[in-house]
Hints:
Blueprint lengths: L11 H16 L11 H16 L4 H6 L5 H16 L1 E3 L2 E3 L2 H4 L2 E7 L5 E6 L1 H10 L4 H10 L11 H8 L6 H5 L9 H4 L4 H11 L9 H15 L5 E2 L5 E2 L3 H9 L2 H30 L1
Helix pairs in contact: 11-12
Amino acid sequence: MPLEQGTIxxxxxxxxxxxxxxxxxxxxxYSFRKKPSTKHHENVQKMLEVLALNGTLTTWGMAKTxxxxxxxxxxxxxxxxxxxxxxxxxxxxxxxxxxxxxIVKNGKSFAKAPADQYRLSLHGILYCLDVLDLSDKQIDSMxxxxxxxxxxxxGKWTYLKSNIGKEVYRLKNLAGGLFMDNIQIAKISNFPxxxxxxxxxxxxxxxxxxxxxxxxxxxISIWFYTNLLxxxxxxxxxxxxxxxxxxxxxxxxxxxxxxxxYYGFVNEAIKFYNNRFSKLKKLETN
Length: 286
């Protein structure tokens, strides 16, 4: 449950309408390495990068990734703790990463005294892809560390890269708020991308305020594989370049679990539209 992770977060629509704009306002809408920003933005982004590249850590573990002396680690740990939970200063509450939903608690470490462990949430992963300006190599590292959090995409990252190369990084489009659920998609793809994306929104429409992490991972993953059929750009000849349906099917059919999972969603969509079509037909007879 999201509550057990120390925070509550919603579906992809919630990410687009709340988490992303809120996080950009509080923690920056571009990487501090690209353009000078506030010290607070820089500190938050550096901490998120540590979690992105290293996975689950305590605040002490986060500090140890880039500091050696005990005094420096202790000081940085206190800073990280404030960034995570927020703080009260001069009667004003500073919102923490946990409250916004970019990170979640992930068990405890008992190496010394019991200490909470933290990792990126799925919203946090998307924010990092959107803002931190991670290199492809860094995204590959994040995929490895978070394979169990996003199993149908990050858990199959090596398989996907061997088949579609840099197309795997299309996940950054979703992180940027591009849902590809606009009616215009129907004009640029023969595959029923618009219908599948529309049903994807319908399926999770009641989860704006709260969603199980497994279900959010499912929504993100379905978006990812469906989006592969959307042309990325126009070529110089005017033709739209995208993964050919034949190549896409090879990817889906080449992995038994992937095939069963994705076509399970497709069958759900078929049932949904058949039901809607039946209701339309009744309008003619009533």
